[in-house]
Amino acid sequence: KAGVTQTPRYLIKTRGQQVTLSCSPISGHRSVSWYQQTPGQGLQFLFEYFSETQRNKGNFPGRFSGRQFSNSRSEMNVSTLELGDSALYLCASSLFPGTSGLTGELFFGEGSRLTVL
Amino acid sequence: KNEVEQSPQNLTAQEGEFITINCSYSVGISALHWLQQHPGGGIVSLFMLSSGKKKHGRLIATINIQEKHSSLHITASHPRDSAVYICAVNSGGGADGLTFGKGTHLIIQP
């Protein structure tokens, strides 16, 4: 079956702009989570969506937001971009959300690499 | 907040060697994940553990819940095993999302 698809794979923006990243999960998966990876901080949890509801959010400013659609596809948005937002943004899908008390294997996309100039 | 520590940070070994990567965490968890990341960024889930031991081919993962410790072993290592291996945990009932270790950079030389 098709894997997790993230678009775009690469993008360059300038400070102050905004960006929207998309994630299509594996068919049948209703949980989508987002992560930021930087050389300095490593991987950090951004947020998790399940059935169109945000289940939890990591320690990121309000400039970072997301949503999930009825077909389980998810988008994340970063407004007023800063240089420090340059990172690899990864999404992962699973059958169960982390807050469910159940645990499901995670399937990651290839990531969207954002460069802010 | 859970603190996840991995060791070693970097490991270079010869092909065929037995490899062990360690992960310890500070707070009780519902699950621990071992992930593999190759250059270019893509991440593959190797194991998800909540207790005991799992084996896939040459890879073995163990977890000791009482000790708050997990190990990833690679038997008969091969240059294609060269990658970053990352430990991640679900804790706080999942409310905190995943917390990640810094990763172990593994290089297997032919």
Tell me the span between the first and last alpha carbons of chain B.
Answer: 40 Å
Q: Which regions of chain B are unreliable across 5 or more consecutive residues at pLDDT < 50?
A: none
| Number of β-strand runs of chain A | 11
Question: Which term fits the overall shape of chain B?
Answer: globular
User: Quick check: average pLDDT of chain B?
Assistant: 93
Secondary-structure element pattern of chain A, one letter each: EEEEEEEEEEE
**Number of helical regions of chain A:** 0
Q: Which chain pair has the greatest contact?
A: A-B, 32 and 26 residues
Give the N-to-C terminal Cα separation of chain A.
Answer: 37 Å
Mean pLDDT of chain A: 92
The percent of residues in helical segments of chain B reads: under 10%
* Topology, number of strands of chain B: 11
Which H/E pattern describes the elements of chain B? EEEEEEEEEEE
Strand content of chain A: over 45%
**What gyration radius of chain A follows from the Cα positions, in whole Å?**
13 Å
